[in-house]
Each structure stands twice: as C-alpha cells, then as structure tokens.
Amino acid sequence: MPKYLIIADDFTGANDTGVQLKKRGIETQVIVNLKDTCEINTSCVIDTESRGLGEKEAYESVRNYIRDILKEEFDFVYKKVDSTLRGNLVSEIKAIDDIYKPELIIFAPAFPKIGRTTVDKIHKLNGIRIIETEIANDPKKPVKEDNLNKLLQEGYEDKVIHHDLLEIRRGEMDLECSRIHSFDGETDEDLIHIVNASINTNKKILWVGSAGLADAIFAVKKPFKPSLAIVGSISEVSRSQLKYAEKNGASILKIDIGKLLNGENKKSYVDLGIDILAKGKDLILSSAYNREDYEKAINIGDKKFMPKEEVSMYTQETLADIGIEILKSSHVSGVFLTGGDTAISFINKCEAIGSVIIQEVITGIPLMKIKGGKFDGLKMITKAGAFGREEDIYYSLGKLKEDL
C-alpha cells in the first residue's frame, strides 16, 4: 500500500486532509509533536502550526520539522495549503522543496466541492476572486495575491509554468518544460486530469494543494467503488435531491415505466446500468425524474385498467428487479434506497432477513448492512421519500464509500 506524507500548517487542515486517507482504509496518524513519536510506520499528517508565523520563521520551522521525517521513504509527499491561499504558502513550499528535492512541483489549490476554483490563473471563492473577498482582510494572514502564477514566481528563480482549463481538458499539459507548474481547476474532473498527467511523468513530485487535489490523488491511486441508488419516491423533495446529485457527477438512469408497461424489455436498462458502474460512476435509478414521467405511467396504466396503486407497486418491483440484476454483475460500495415501498421491495426481492444498523449518517437517515440473502453484508442507506435536504442523496452516496 502506498505510504503518504501530508504536511499541513494548522490542525484543522491536517485533519480534513488526513480523513480522506482514513476513508479509504489507510491507517493514518496526525502528528503535532514529533518529539513524542519514535517511529513512523504508517501514512501520516504533520501539523507544523506555522500559518500564523512570519515568512522567514515559517520557512525555518517547516524545514526543521520535516528534515528528519523525510529520511523515511514515502510514495507521496503532499503540502496541504489553505483553499483560500492563507498562510506562508511560498516559503513553506520552498522549505519542503529544499529538503525533499522533487523533480516536479505541482500546485493546484482548487477545491471545487466547496466553491474554491481557479480560472485563468485567478483563484476564486464562490466565483469571486480571493482578493475581493473578506479573506483579503484576514487579521492574521491577509491574502494579497490570488494569481497562482505570480504567487509562486515571486518566490522562485525557476520559470513557473501555468496550465489553463483548455490545456487540462485536452490533455495537452507539457510537464517537461519546467520543474514548477501551477494549474487552473474548476471541477473535480480537472483535478483528476492533473493528477493522471503528473503521475505519468514517473518523476519525484511534491504535490501542493488543498483537500481537493489530495482527494483527486486518492481517487486515482485508491479509487472508491461506486454507489448505486434506487429512487422510487415521486416527491418533489426526492426529485430535487436527485437533480442535485446529478449536477455533482452522479449518472441518472431514467427507467421509463410507461414503456415497460407496454412490453419493453428491462435488459437494456440492466446492461446500461452495469456499464455506468463499471466506469466508476455513481448510478441512480429513477422512475420519476420529472412529474410528467409519473403522469405518463399512470395514463398508460389507466389504459390497461390498472389503478394507480397497481402501477405504483409495479414501479417499485421493477426498480428493485433492475437494481438487483445490476448488482449481480457489478462491484459497488453500497446501495441507497429512498421511499419506503422501494426499500422493502428491494429487501424482499434480494431475500434478506433484515439489516444490521451501523450508524446514523444524517438525522433520520441510517446506514446499515443487509443481513442474509443475495447481498449479505452490503452497505445500505434508506431514506423516507419526502424528507431531507437537497444534498442528502449525494452525501449518502459518498458515505457508502467510506471505510471508517
């Protein structure tokens, strides 16, 4: 298993990056006092507590802190920086650079999940450049420069090369033309492209970024298995949660109940679902992406003399059948079920005897393991249909992946 060293300048930053390792089942310790540590046999996060120091003091502090620890062998060395560029970024990068002597420095501080992006070299918070936000007036460490290229270039004689979104998305990053590189980043996928291109150089790299780049590295080197969701609820709450998850990268497979009532084969949905999961994408099965989908199914059922209740039961059983067939040929982290009828239909059809409760991931939303049946031990989250916040399905798909 790769051994990671993460160097952070404050305790909260050390923990929020270290937990990404723990989620993937990698034993990790956070160290705030090296004198108390005799030997480091695992991946670790070092908190240098240097954010509030002056630049020269921060350089010396970080250099002294890591000098002995870098005598250990690490597969990845990562300098964790604040996602809004606070702190002594350049002096601390140089301190590690002087000891570690990397062949490449990769600087990409974007963290798209929480609104930290970089476009045309300018780092932004929720679309506003950092120096125009309250971060620029931070009482301890005001941010005076949000142009990544200028920020690094001021501290280095070496040429700093910046790579824009077009280069990143076309895969045209030339990482041989210089030792030091900064990057735009607007989406998680951008960060994945940066990581893949950098790893393919086979060079000794000092990675520099926020928790966003760290997560991208872990996603490439130790990817999670995707999660499957089955959304049988027709509530507006569930539809808004479904579309939020889609906006954040989940794939939606729309199950056309009307067509199935008219004789369409389920196999095409099963095959498509298996293909999506095989690509590592989270998959959501939905029978009512829009209100019109539900009304269409009811109208077709009416023509077949099926009452609403019968169409509803057919829908839940069909979703469960498709979900189970997909699971038979897929490797997933777990399954998310919303809507009481959907959940019990799935449990009955996979011949489980029940579940073992692990924890509550959000108030009113439990994480369990299926007990017995075809998928004994598979993680499962259930949620009432007309309940919760917009982000709850997306959040739950992520929680299923964690190895805590």
TrEMBL record:
Keywords: Kinase, Transferase. Residues 5-216 form the Four-carbon acid sugar kinase N-terminal domain. Pfam families: NBD_C, SBD_N. Residues 228-391 form the Four-carbon acid sugar kinase nucleotide binding domain. The keyword Transferase applies. GO terms for molecular function: kinase activity. InterPro entries: 4-carb_acid_sugar_kinase_N (IPR010737), NBD_C (IPR031475). The keyword Transferase applies. It comes from the Bacteria. This is Four-carbon acid sugar kinase family protein. It comes from Clostridium mobile.
